[in-house]
Write a structure and sequence with these properties.
The complex is a heterotrimer of chains A (258), B (350) and C (201). With 350 residues, chain B is mainly beta. Chain B contains four helices and 21 strands. Chain C starts with a helix and ends with a helix. Classes of the chains: A alpha+beta (258), B mainly beta (350), C alpha+beta (201).
Chain lengths: 258, 350, 201
């Protein structure tokens, strides 16, 4: 009896270990389908998405610390400015120290990380960054138990509030019907193709199919003119560069379903 | 022989000069608005200056230089909870923590060297569209700035006038509805006629979940904004900002100049000062001057320059004469005139 | 000998543990620092991805060090902008005169799926590009990384074509981005001046 219990315990324990090491342990399945892009180019059709796995939360400071420990070139003092600007991990106390004063943020999303750093983290994990279409598709799911009339209203409520001084922990803000936590309401998140051809920033006077996010012209091409939250998200992405490290910008990873 | 030739050349030159001057001056008289002909702008810069920036109701001092300069202007964007009325707060998006943003004063022909910094605490991307700028998006494309970053662009102030600037990041209406606008004055090369007092007033409409003056922090109401049904129509971003201690002042006999803009996002203002007649109105902020005006229209995203001499002491009310806005929604301000009575102009009979 | 075996076993083990996706950096993340050598921190050549030329040669961008480089991103199935942008670069080349011999001209394709070396060779012939031109194919990941560094925006459409910005970039001998010109059939005077200056250094 005792032995059986011991074996059972061992079994459970090893399962747990295997679970902890497996990349899928904290990922949820996002069923694919046709995603209709928010901004439409003249010749664009819905984007076909395969089913994929997505991290249920944004990557936390504690998780990112492990990455930095294993990859010295991504430490604050060593990182190349081409890949991360001077704000990189600005809220950490040292290369490998989130900081005793920052205890409450160990399980908060890591922010002040560049696109390059986020991508390197994802690769280290055997994952990748979601595409804009994947992220938007996953983020469109309704929230569980929300008091807001609709998702746009909820997101707008968050967007129009300044960033809090200390970011809350992951899983404390909201959950959607996929089981994803905090897709809206906690941080902005990097996407693989954030520099898709829909943006602000440069003049494209000579291109035929230009799309601008300025003034009223931008609203001619969108699927829902009243979806102010999406406008804000797309203009935000459009103003980013790969080495920017920003207070409210983190990331989560995805993985193809084999 | 040699001498003769020389003198005849001189004569010829003199004649040509006179002819040229005659043609030139007749042209000048004929067109009347050469001030707007930017082909005549001298584009050679003669140094760099820092723009004096002021917040409403203050206006920077008149410019003293008389040749084109590179003018450095720097704005910083803040998303900030501020009072929209004494008991109500709202999350404003601002240029420089004020609504409206800083007043900029440059001279026609100046090269404006503009830097936009977006505060690291900001949640959103912002940019700027100067109506005084000739170039793509009025600078909007060049100034799209993520939180914690800054961008820079230069534009030539080609035309004199009073111009609105505003954030033009999508969704534009939301950025404007949250207070991201202000004004830039481009003085003509000859300068502005001198007056005694200059003030900066800017109207804007606001849309909140709660009604006018509902207490606490109020959120933006998208539906009301789309329906163009504001809860607040305000001068300088706050209820009673130009009332009591905030009132504009002048003395009898002084000439007051109001730089009045309208940020919108939706409403057109029927700007009027109760008990005054506008001596001069630079219609729509441009160079044509209308005289003896009672109420002037200020389009959303437009501006006007008003000169008026204050003859009689008293309190004069600045209103949007779409009068429910003044009475119920906050579009009211005061100009307090002190000094000697002039019964020949006005006196009350028992 | 034993040690080498051990090393291989460990290496294989580590590799399988990491479970790298196929499209990932072919050079490992670790090589960022290792690859730097004499390349300055700001150099675009710090990216370690491997590209394939129209002649099937594997190269990293570092291979272009030593001469200034004119670089643009295109895709060969493009019917409008890319042929024009390519022609702009040919025009720049001809206006550079003798200096063009000291310059690399590099076109990198957005189209990882269709622009394989054979297709790049075909495009090179069609556009009559001379041997100073190198056309590159890269993984989706490598192409996206380069686009981010060059501030080129692009998006793949559902029909397999791309919407993209048109930018000609000028890199110095060490791969530092020194000048960019956006648009097609624009005045390239400044671009030519920049390249001439770099070629003379």
């Amino acid at each position: 009896m005792k032995i059986r219990f011991f074996i059972l315990t061992l079994f459970v324990f090893s399962c747990h270990l295997a679970g902890a090491q497996s990349a899928e342990s904290h990922m949820v399945k996002i069923v694919g389908g046709n995603y209709v892009p928010f901004f439409r180019l003249p010749n664009s059709a819905p984007v076909k998405l395969n089913t994929f796995l997505m991290d249920e939360t944004a990557v936390t400071n504690a998780e990112f610390l492990e990455f930095v420990k294993a990859n010295p070139q991504w430490r604050k003092s060593k990182v190349n400015r081409l890949f991360a600007d001077s704000n990189y991990l600005k809220n950490w106390e040292g290369d490998l120290v989130i900081g005793s004063g920052n205890k409450s943020i160990y399980n908060s999303p890591v922010v002040y990380v560049s696109w390059f750093a986020a991508k390197a983290y994802a690769q280290w994990k055997g994952k990748r960054l979601p595409t804009v279409a994947e992220w938007e598709h996953a983020g469109e799911a309704p929230l569980v138990g929300s008091k807001f009339k609709n998702l746009t209203e909820y997101i707008l409520y968050w967007y129009t509030k300044p960033n809090p001084k200390v970011l809350p922990n992951v899983k404390t803000v909201c959950k959607n019907s996929y089981g994803l936590y905090d897709m809206h309401g906690l941080v902005w998140e990097w996407t693989f193709d954030f520099n898709s051809f829909i943006k602000s920033g440069d003049s494209r006077a000579n291109t035929e199919d230009e799309l601008k996010l300025f003034c009223a012209s931008s609203s001619l091409y969108v699927k829902d003119k009243d979806d102010y939250a999406s406008f804000l998200r797309y203009s935000y992405r459009g103003s980013l560069k790969g080495n920017f490290c920003i207070a409210g910008l983190g990331f989560r990873c995805v993985k193809d379903l084999k | 022989m040699y001498i003769n030739k020389k003198s005849s050349t001189a004569l010829f030159s003199a004649a040509m000069c006179i002819l040229f001057l005659a043609i030139f001056s007749s042209c000048k008289q004929g067109s009347g608005d050469d001030q707007n002909d930017f082909t005549k702008i001298d584009t050679v810069l003669t140094g760099t200056v820092q723009a004096e920036l002021t917040y409403a109701p203050n206006v920077p001092k008149p410019l003293t230089y008389t040749s084109p300069k590179r003018v450095e202007v720097k704005f910083k964007v803040f998303e900030k909870v501020m009072n929209i009325s004494d008991s109500t707060q709202y999350t404003f998006w601002t240029f420089g923590e004020h609504v409206p943003g800083p007043f900029v004063r440059v001279r026609q022909g100046d090269l404006v060297d503009f830097t936009l910094e977006n505060s690291a605490d900001s949640k959103l991307t912002h940019n700027i569209d100067f109506h005084a700028c000739t170039g793509p998006g009025g600078g909007a494309e060049a100034s799209s700035t993520a939180p914690g970053q800054s961008t820079r662009f230069q534009f030539r102030a080609l035309q004199p006038g009073l111009f609105v600037y505003h954030c033009a990041t999508a969704p534009v209406p939301l950025h404007i509805a949250n207070g991201m606008y202000g004004m830039i004055l481009v003085e003509p090369q000859s300068g502005m006629p001198k007056v005694d007092k200059e003030y900066y007033v800017m109207q804007g409409d606001f849309y909140t979940k709660g009604k006018y003056d509902a207490p606490g922090l109020q959120d933006f109401d998208e539906q009301k904004a789309v329906d163009e049904k504001p809860d607040y129509v305000l001068f300088n971003g706050k209820v009673r900002s130009l009332v009591g201690k905030g009132a504009l002042t002048s003395k009898t006999g002084e000439t007051v100049r109001l730089y009045v803009g309208n940020g919108g996002p939706n409403l057109v203002s029927s700007f009027h000062v109760i008990g005054e007649i506008f001596d001069k109105v630079h219609t729509e902020g441009g160079s044509s001057i209308n005289k003896g005006v009672q109420t002037t229209l200020i389009p959303s995203g437009g501006a006007t320059i008003i000169d008026m001499k204050t003859e009689v002491p008293g309190t004069y009310l600045l209103v949007d004469h779409s009068i429910f806005r003044a009475f119920n929604k906050g579009a009211i301000g005061q100009l307090k005139v002190t000094g000697k009575e002039d019964p020949s102009i006005f006196h009350k009979i028992k | 000998m034993k040690n080498i075996y051990l090393l291989i076993v460990v290496a294989v083990f580590v590799w399988s543990c990491n479970d790298q996706p196929k499209s990932a950096f072919t050079g490992s993340i670790e090589s960022h620092t290792a690859a730097v050598g004499t390349i300055p921190d700001e150099s675009i050549y710090n990216i370690t991805d491997t590209f394939t030329t129209q002649d099937q040669k594997k190269v990293s961008l570092k291979n272009f060090t030593g001469a200034p480089t004119v670089m643009a991103m295109i895709f060969t199935h493009c019917t409008y902008a890319c042929p024009r942008l390519t022609a702009d670069i040919q025009n720049i080349e001809s206006k550079l005169g003798k200096n063009s011999e000291k310059v690399n001209f590099v076109l990198v394709s957005f189209d990882s799926e269709r622009d394989l070396p054979q297709q790049l060779t075909k495009f090179k012939k069609e556009m009559k590009l001379d041997n100073r031109f190198t056309l590159l194919h890269g993984s989706e990941d490598a192409v996206r990384t380069l686009s981010v560094l060059l501030n080129v925006q692009f998006q793949k459409n559902s029909n397999g074509d791309f919407s993209h910005s048109n930018i000609i970039s000028v890199l110095d001998k060490k791969g530092n981005l020194v000048f960019q010109k956006e648009g097609i059939q624009t005045d390239q005077k400044q671009t030519i001046e920049q390249i001439t200056e770099l070629a003379g250094e």
